[in-house]
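INFO batch 0412 | record 1 of 1 | parsing
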Amino acid sequence: MQKYKNVFMIFLALILFVYAGFISIFPAFVTKTFNIDEFEQKSYTATGLNITLGYIDIKIKPNFKTVIIVRDLIAKYPDNQPLLEAKYAELTTTPASILKKEFKIKSLYLKNVEYHDQILPDGENKIAYLPAAFDPSYYGTKKITIVPGPIRIKNLDVSYTVGEPYSYKTTSKREITFEKSEVEEFLSNLTFTNVVIK
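INFO prediction complete | emitting C-alpha cells
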C-alpha cells in the first residue's frame, strides 16, 4: 500500500512540477524568446501594415488565465498613414492563444489610444482592404480563431475625414466600452477570409 502511495505522490509531484513550469517557466520563455523584429516583419507581410511593438509580456496565472501585455503598439498603412497607436494593451485570454493561435478575448483593455479613420477619395475606408490582404500563414498557421469578448478603452482619440467640405477632425472619449456582441458584429462585418469568428 505504501508503494502505491509513493507512486501516487511522485505522480502528483510531476503533475505539479509541469503545472508550475507551464504557468511560470513557459510564459517567461515565450516572452524572452519572442522576437519583436521578426514579428514586425511577418506582420507586414501578413497584413500589409507597418506594425511596431515596444514591449511584450506574457503571464499565465494559477487558474490558467493568460494575460498578454503590449506597450507602444503602432500600426501604419504601407504609405505610412497612421492607423492605430496604443500606449498600453492588456489582453486576458487562455493558454490556447500561445499554443494554437486561438484567441479567446475574455477582456481587452486599451489605454491612451489614437485611431485614424482614413477615408479614400471614393468614400471607402482604407481598413476595408485589410481583411482580404490578411494571410496568417506567415505566423505559422492557416487560420486564426477569435472568440470575441468585451473591450474597454481609456483615453481614446479618433481622427476622421469629413467630405463636403473636406476636413480632418478629432474627437476624444475619456472611456468607452464595447460589449461582446458589438465586437463580434464588428469583426464579422470585416469578412476576414482566414479568420474564424466564433
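INFO post-check: Strands lie at 50-52, 55-60, 66-76, 82-93, 102-104, 107-117, 144-147, 151-162, 167-178, 195-197.
INFO record closed
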